[in-house]
Amino acid sequence: xSVAVIAALSYATGTLAAGPASRxxxxxTLNTTxxxxxxxxxxxxxxxxxxxxxxxxxxxxxxxxxxxxxxxGIGYGxxxxxxxxxxxxxxxxxxxxxxxxxxxxxxxAFGETPTVGTVIGGALMLGAVAALKPRRTARxxxxxxxxxxxxxxxxxxxxxxxxxxxxxxx
Length: 170
Prior knowledge:
Blueprint: H1 3-24, H2 27-49, H3 58-83, H4 88-95, H5 98-110, H6 116-130, H7 138-147, H8 149-152
Helix pairs in contact: 1-3, 2-3
């Protein structure tokens, strides 16, 4: 089995497990568990290859801390918080927006010029996210209410059409 297939299966397994796990644990505990578990899984490979080495300056240490605490910590915290209420397909497509956001940041912050392919890819991703707009029927809303009773307290689930349950319709 190729490394790409193993990576895809691992990602799919993690995505499918994120919802049930995030409903049993708070986002911080789950984030910590996932990060430590990932580090332990990679440890044999780091030991076998010598790893990338340690940062050699205070600026490099600050960059490493920023990547670990801010980028990964906050990003995965938001991911696991969203996994409590959104289905895995929605989570997967929303995470695929990361390159689009990074590209927009590069254009705004650094004056990068996107290619035609980048613009087309970004439009396709936005279209995929727009296609996620929930189309709830009364039966689907009742099924969601039974699966996620904490949403009922936030508003009328039968008429709930927004993808984020903490936003209630006026």
